[in-house]
């Protein structure tokens, strides 16, 4: 039961970056197109699940004094694994994400989940895996959604397919950096309004 | 004291495990990564330099060969021919940029000793700033330059206009080209004899 709960909280109650306002840098930077956003989300999910599982398994061995150093080594290892695998099998995605793949190391969501969830005694390895997978999937959905909106308005396409017709004049602003801030800000606002009923009661 | 020893021990073991895992994955994917690089990075750069600029009529990707360099390593050489006659060769040279390695496909006309063109790949430079060394306005300064020319940005007394705001990336691209020319000069015999084998 708790596994299901840990999984689903990442999809709505704690969905990053709208609820859990972490990981904003990749959310702003790579969401020029829906497929880039989803690719970034999948890479982050892989790192999140792997590091959560490993840290949860090692939580009794890691001395609390060096725990952050240990977490960062574990996270950095999985990020390099993702980088090598993406380079070997998904090169177009690797080159589209560029510098943001190695920067997954400093994504606060991952260290945050390791410190706040996976390393706690009361959470089992399965809970930690479910937590990582739920938060990661939520992040993927959010990034894909942001990317789709920006791609649709800024380029008239979704996943590279033209959907707005030939008469549509692309709103280029949306695929530039300021468009990312505006789009994310509006989404945060909408999520706050939608969540108001459940949080104030 | 016991706490300190266990801290050092645990961190050391985790780092060692990490190194082991990464070495394994790096080695087992190296062939695959090389192929992807050829397909998506070197391939288009070679096509740009040898087919678009020189107008080669052969397929320089399939007509590639390896030259054995004096230090024992191998250099991938791409050969561009027009109607069966050797026009230009291209190979990759690298230099450290701002965020990582900048790779440049250096195209050389061995007969006239000039650069025929360059194809820059700079995936780790700052997007929109340093990454612009891979774009046309910077790259088109190179075709036709003699190998004796001072290939450096103007701030360093050379002949190349740096991309504004990206002096480090521009320097790296120029340095890679200079390295390529040095390599070509010092290994000319090895390179030319390797080319003979494909002709």
Name a few traits of the molecule.
heterodimer; A: 201 residues; mainly alpha; two-stranded antiparallel ribbon; 8 helices; globular; B: 199 residues; alpha+beta; 5-stranded antiparallel beta sheet; 44% helix; 22% strand
Fold blueprint:
The complex is a heterodimer of chains A (201) and B (199).
Chain A: H1 2-9, H2 24-29, H3 34-58, H4 67-89, H5 91-97, H6 108-118, H7 125-155, E1 157-158, E2 161-162, H8 177-200
Antiparallel strand pairs in A: 1-2
Helix pairs in contact in A: 1-7, 3-4, 3-6, 3-7, 4-5, 4-6, 6-7
Chain B: H1 2-53, E1 64-68, E2 74-82, E3 85-96, E4 101-109, E5 114-121, H2 136-139, H3 167-186, H4 188-198
Antiparallel strand pairs in B: 1-2, 2-3, 3-4, 4-5
In DSSP terms (H or I, runs of 4 or more residues), the helix count of chain B works out at 4
Mean pLDDT across residues of chain A: 88
Total count of helical runs of at least 4 residues of chain A: 8
Tell me the count of domains of chain B: 1
**Strand residues, percent of chain B:** 15-25%
- The helical percent of chain B reads 40-55%
Shape of chain B: globular
Q: What is the string of SSEs of chain B from the N terminus onward?
A: HEEEEEHHH
Can you list the strand order of the major beta sheet of chain A? Answer: 1-2
Assembly state of the chains shown: heterodimer
Average predicted local confidence, pLDDT of chain B:
88
What's the main sheet of chain B like?
Answer: 5 strands, antiparallel
Q: Which protein chains are joined by the largest interface, and how many residues does each one contribute? A: A-B, 24 and 26 residues
Uncertain residue ranges of chain B: none
Quick one: biggest sheet of chain A? 2 strands, antiparallel
Report the structural category of chain B.
Answer: alpha+beta
Structure commentary:
The complex is a heterodimer of chains A (201) and B (199). The two termini of chain A are 25 Å apart. With 201 residues, chain A is mainly α. Chain A is globular and about 60 Å long. Chain A has one domain (2-196). Chain A has a two-stranded antiparallel sheet. In chain A, helix 3 (34-58) crosses helix 4 (67-89), helix 3 runs parallel beside helix 6 and helix 3 (34-58) runs antiparallel to helix 7 (125-155). Chain A has helices at 2-9, 24-29, 34-58, 67-89, 91-97, 108-118, 125-155, 177-200; strands at residues 157-158, 161-162. Chain B is of the alpha+beta class. Chain B has one domain (44-198). Chain B is 44% helix and 22% strand. Chain B has four helices and five strands; from the N terminus they run H-E-E-E-E-E-H-H-H. Chain B has helices spanning 2-53, 136-139, 167-186, 188-198, and strands spanning 64-68, 74-82, 85-96, 101-109, 114-121. In chain B, strand 3 (85-96) and strand 4 form a beta hairpin. Chain B is globular and about 75 Å long. The mean pLDDT of chain B is 88. Classes of the chains: A mainly alpha (201), B alpha+beta (199). At the A-B interface, helix 4 and helix 5 of A face helix 1 of B.
């Amino acid at each position: 039961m708790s596994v299901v709960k840990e999984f689903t909280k990442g999809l709505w109650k704690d969905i990053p970056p709208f609820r859990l306002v972490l990981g904003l840098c990749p959310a702003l930077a790579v969401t020029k197109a829906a497929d880039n956003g989803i690719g970034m989300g999948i890479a982050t999910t892989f790192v999140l699940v792997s590091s959560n599982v490993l840290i949860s398994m090692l939580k009794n061995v890691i001395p609390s004094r060096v725990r952050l150093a240990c977490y960062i080594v574990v996270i950095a290892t999985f990020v390099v694994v993702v980088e090598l695998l993406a380079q070997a099998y998904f090169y177009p995605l690797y080159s589209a994400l560029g510098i943001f793949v190695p920067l997954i190391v400093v994504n606060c969501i991952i260290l945050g989940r390791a410190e706040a969830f996976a390393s706690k005694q009361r959470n089992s390895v399965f809970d930690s895996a479910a937590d990582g997978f739920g938060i990661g999937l939520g992040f993927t959905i959010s990034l894909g959604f942001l990317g789709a909106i920006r791609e649709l308005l800024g380029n008239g396409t979704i996943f590279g397919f033209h959907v707005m017709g030939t008469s549509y004049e692309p709103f280029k602003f949306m695929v530039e950096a300021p468009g990312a801030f505006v789009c994310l800000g509006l989404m945060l606002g909408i999520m706050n309004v939608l969540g108001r009923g459940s949080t104030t009661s | 004291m016991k706490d300190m020893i266990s801290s050092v021990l645990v961190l050391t073991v985790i780092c060692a495990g990490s190194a082991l895992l990464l070495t394994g994955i790096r080695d087992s994917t190296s062939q695959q990564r090389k192929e992807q690089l050829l397909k998506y990075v070197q391939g288009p750069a070679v096509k740009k330099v040898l087919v678009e600029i020189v107008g080669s009529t052969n397929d320089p990707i399939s007509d590639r060969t390896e030259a054995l360099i004096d230090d024992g390593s191998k250099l991938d050489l791409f050969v561009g021919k027009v109607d069966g006659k050797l026009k230009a060769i291209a190979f990759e040279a690298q230099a450290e940029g701002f965020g990582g390695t900048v790779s440049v496909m250096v195209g050389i006309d061995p007969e006239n000793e000039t650069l025929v063109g360059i194809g820059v790949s700079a995936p780790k430079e700052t997007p929109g700033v340093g990454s612009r060394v891979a774009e046309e306005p910077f790259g088109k300064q190179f075709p036709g330059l003699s190998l004796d020319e001072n290939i450096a940005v103007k701030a360093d007394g050379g002949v190349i206009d740096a991309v504004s705001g990206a002096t480090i990336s521009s320097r790296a691209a120029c340095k890679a080209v200079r390295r390529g020319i040095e390599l070509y000069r010092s290994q000319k015999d090895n390179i030319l004899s390797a080319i003979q084998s494909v002709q």
